[in-house]
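We were asked to recover a plausible sequence for a given structure. The inputs and outputs are reproduced exactly as logged, with field labels preserved.

PROBLEM: sequence recovery
POSITIONS: 523
GIVEN STRUCTURE:
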């Protein structure tokens, strides 16, 4: 008898265990579960209703990340207009805190981007899985606090804010299974969009006006959300999570320094940096809080220089295959040396950034590689500009031959920590390795989806990249912006003078762009 009841107890315990693991969460938004929080913006106090830690899928894999925070200006509940918007017409600002393709918590009202990647002092790359060489820059990212966070800015200007957390490349469950490899993080953000739409009547804001925002890997996520709306490629993943049955497309994209087109970014990087044979080791080795000297310049080996030359030679073939067009419909191309009107087009963007800075009153007369005439920016010495910027990464910059780059870890599987994702690096690998599945590589590259049948690509895009950001190639940004324009999208693209790898530095301008576009639609 005793033995029997022990047996029953054991079965019950097992069942509880199983149930706990596969607990199903309600997808219904509970309007009554909120707290009132306050923040100060430009000397004024604001009150918001905070709906925090909402699990946005029925069958989450990691509730530490698959959750969302929603903030609504309290004035909207008292029938007040803010910036011309009501609780129903307000657009939804959807910022993510993804950095380094790591797991990211949802952003909070007063905490900014709460990702483990971005916390200064702890070291983004230092959080990586064993064997990973941290390769991230310790440079400012996220909000430029002097002008307040993007979330405060949004709420003060009558936007609803919804920020979702997302799984990332280093995440493992208690059994050691990797749970955040591609495309997990993107699927999570899509699931959060589905949740907002599914609860349309109960969550304030216009679900046709969702505007994503992110920086770096988060900028790439923002772009991917914009490019891949409702694509069937992601549906099985959404279904497995028990995502709400609703559309996942968005209205507009804000992306700062997106690290994207990963499967071609190595050759784009060498097109730009070939010939720069030193790199900044401090940026590479970083940043676990106890790394060595702040500045240390290292030399590329002869083999790395050879790899650089080979990768550079692959870029024109790729670029020419894209059939990109300038505003006059002329094809942008490169010759085998990497010269041609595409390069001129990139140069024009840097010149335009210089001119904008001059117009803002900056003195650029001491910039040796910039050609000025009568106080106007005319041209640049591209090679001198790139040398002055300096190289951050060794070739191949993204699909590292030793599998040590963050992107190698992004393309792991549930049981393999890091893989290659280009044929070049697989062919030249320095370690025992395997190749990521093509459908996964595809799902992480917005270029395969922009304006393509089966994906509802956002119409409005705001893309910024700093002129001294050496995390990826300028070519990557120009390619994305041009492809979007060529496929009929409205793109506000600019290089930001003297900006390193960071985001949200021009919030006034960003929100003016949003206001103009949303109000045009609301008329
Ligand atoms: C980030 C930066 C990188 O250089 C990179 O390769 C991937 C991500 C980032 O800052 O998110």
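RECOVERED SEQUENCE:
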């Amino acid at each position: 008898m005793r033995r029997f009841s022990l047996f029953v107890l054991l079965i019950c315990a097992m069942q509880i265990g199983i149930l706990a693991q596969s607990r199903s969460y309600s997808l219904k938004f509970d309007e009554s579960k909120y707290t009132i929080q306050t923040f100060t913006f430009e000397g004024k106090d604001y009150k918001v209703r905070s709906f925090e830690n909402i699990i946005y899928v029925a069958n989450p894999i990691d509730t530490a990340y698959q959750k969302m925070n929603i903030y609504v200006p309290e004035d909207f509940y008292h029938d007040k207009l803010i910036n011309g918007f009501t609780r129903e017409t307000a657009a939804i600002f959807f910022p993510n805190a993804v950095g380094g393709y790591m797991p990211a918590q949802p952003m909070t009202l007063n905490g900014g981007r709460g990702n483990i990647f971005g916390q200064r002092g702890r070291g983004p790359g230092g959080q990586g899985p064993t064997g990973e060489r941290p390769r991230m820059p310790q440079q400012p990212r996220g909000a430029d606090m002097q002008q307040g966070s993007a979330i405060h800015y949004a709420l003060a200007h009558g936007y609803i804010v919804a920020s979702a957390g997302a799984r990332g490349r280093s995440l493992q469950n208690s059994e050691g299974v990797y749970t955040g490899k591609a495309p997990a993080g993107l699927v999570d953000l899509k699931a959060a969009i589905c949740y907002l739409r599914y609860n349309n009547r109960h969550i304030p804001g216009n679900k046709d006006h969702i505007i994503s925002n992110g920086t770096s890997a988060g900028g790439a996520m923002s772009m991917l959300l914009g490019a891949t709306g409702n694509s069937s490629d992601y549906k099985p993943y959404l279904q497995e999570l028990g995502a709400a049955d609703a559309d996942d497309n968005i209205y507009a994209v804000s992306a700062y320094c997106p690290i994207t087109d990963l499967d071609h970014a190595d050759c784009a990087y060498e097109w730009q940096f070939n010939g720069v044979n030193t790199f900044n080791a401090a940026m590479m080795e970083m940043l676990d809080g106890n790394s060595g000297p702040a500045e240390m310049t290292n030399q590329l080996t002869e083999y790395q220089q050879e790899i650089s030359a080979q990768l550079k030679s692959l870029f024109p073939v790729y670029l020419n295959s894209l059939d990109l067009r300038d505003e006059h419909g002329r094809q942008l191309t490169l010759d085998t040396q990497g010269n041609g009107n595409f390069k001129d087009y990139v140069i024009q963007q840097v010149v335009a950034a210089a001119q904008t800075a001059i117009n803002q009153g900056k003195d650029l007369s001491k910039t040796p590689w910039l050609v000025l005439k009568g106080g106007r920016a005319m041209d640049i010495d591209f090679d001198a500009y790139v040398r002055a910027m300096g190289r951050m990464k060794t070739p191949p910059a993204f699909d590292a031959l030793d599998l040590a780059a963050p992107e190698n870890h992004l393309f792991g599987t549930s049981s393999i920590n890091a893989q290659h994702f280009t044929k070049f690096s697989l062919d030249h690998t320095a370690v025992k390795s395997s190749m990521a599945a093509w459908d996964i590589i595809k799902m992480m590259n917005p270029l395969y989806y922009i304006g393509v049948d089966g994906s509802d690509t956002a119409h409005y895009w705001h893309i910024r990249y700093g002129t001294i950001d050496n995390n990826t190639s300028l070519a990557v940004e120009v390619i994305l912006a041009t492809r979007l324009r060529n496929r009929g999208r409205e793109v506000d693209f600019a290089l930001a003078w003297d900006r390193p790898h960071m985001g949200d530095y021009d919030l006034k301008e960003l929100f003016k762009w949003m206001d103009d576009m949303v109000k045009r639609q609301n008329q």
